[in-house]
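Weekly puzzle thread! Below is a chain. First person to post its structure in token form gets bragging rights.
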Amino acid sequence: MARGTAVLAFLAVCAAVWLFLVQFTQEIDSIRYIEWETAALVGADGRERPVALEQLVEPPALEEGEFLRFTTTLPQGLGQGNLVFEVTGAEIRLVCQGEEWYRSAAGQNSGAVGLAQISYPLPAGAQGQLVLEYRPVDGGSGLFPPLLRYEEQEQSQSSAMAYANLSGIPAGIAALALVLIWAIFLLGAVRGRPDWTLLPLAAAAVGMLLYPIAQSSGYYFLTPGLLRLCTWSGWRVLTLVALLAYLLVNRRLWRYFAAVVLGSAGCLGVTYWVSWVQEGHFARYISSQLAALPEMGLSSSLLYWCNVWLIGACALVSIWSLLQTMLRDQAEAQSLRLKNQLAVESYRLIEEKIQEGAAMRHEMRHQIALLDLLYQKGDLEALGAQLAQMKEANSQLAPIRYTHNFCINTILQSAAAQARQQNTSFQATAMVEEKLPVPEGDLCTLLMNLLDNALEACRKVEGGDRWIRFQAQVNRGILFIQCENSYQGSLRKDGRGRLLTTKEEPELHGFGLRQMETVAKKYEGSLEAGGDAGVFRVKAALYLPGE
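Winning reply:
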């Protein structure tokens, strides 16, 4: 899939999700929050003691006959609308200008979810001081201090539902998971390897996005046709089936998923315990939902939250799997590139030797003719001098064999040839076996990056003092490698002391040392790099498998 097509597909899904969720939103102007101006504790004898509003963060323990009194002034210019406030867990009396408007006493049902809400229609031209008398019931469990707000009449019903909607947050989580899953799928498609197993997970996210929020408040916001589609009862079954299908197909991810489950369960357990110790609402809610689970079945709110969590966890695991795959592909591509580079270098060396051999054969004909002439003349002194000259030339043409290991020998010969071309002295010793229990790809990644960096550093040395010294040996099952080279300039390091590339556009370079470190860690070894006094040194130690 082309990148442009993938971007358009991603934006299309984002737009569809936004167009659906935006129908459940309300303009902020339709709700006006009315803040309390004063608060006082009224005793059983009727005496008032002022209380700072900022100190009232939870319902206080009151004696018999005591209550809290909140006062404020109704804003000017209120039209037709309602006063809205919660009454759960409190005995409430609302008075305006001495006239009682409302009175109630509502406890908290242990099996109920949410808060009871009152929408009191304002009389025409209502104004003046508003007083609310408050006494907690059963410890109180509602909003405290009472949250008072004004809503325009035509907006009151739908905006009240939007405010009390318990499906808004999980619907947003499901929408985020859907967009994330779709992005992962498109990213795989762009790379030519789409993960089709993500489609059931995306379908589950769609089900969790559409059904619960439409079921709870779709009547007030959606068209009849869209409402019938979103509240189809089959969405719940399809969501569970899609989740199970994803988990069954991706058995390779179960270990990651198990880690997420254990971590989440631990966090949930700690949260529940803290809430239980503090007698908080969260512990009561979980307990009530567990008790109601057999009766509620698929309609259980707890099961709904579990499904939302499950989709989010699967999305995170899919992201982790994608990142692992991308890193593995990058490593394989780098290994293949280095192998190809090694093959090209080997071919180039062979081609050079063939050309040198052809030139030598051509020159040999002239040398033989000259030797024959000297022999016929009987000039043995000149004949001996010519033979010595030919032996010296032949020794210079013969390639140096550093080791019987083909891969390492080829890399060292290629580095030596490049060093000659840039007037760099090259010395190398490699006391290793013909066969090492290390894949050639890893050897190429380590040694070619090592020597390429050394050659590049020497090219920047001015004045001709260019040299490289390389050593490799196997001792007690460990491959030791050391490379030293001359360099000029200063070394750049990050905040953790790691070396940084000195090339232009550093975001496109600087991967060689990281790849070398990755190889060292793969074999439980180490890699050290640093320099001083014009000498840069790299040391590596790799534990050989099976040694």
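Puzzle host: Confirmed. Bonus trivia for everyone else. DSSP finds 13 helices and 17 strands in the chain.
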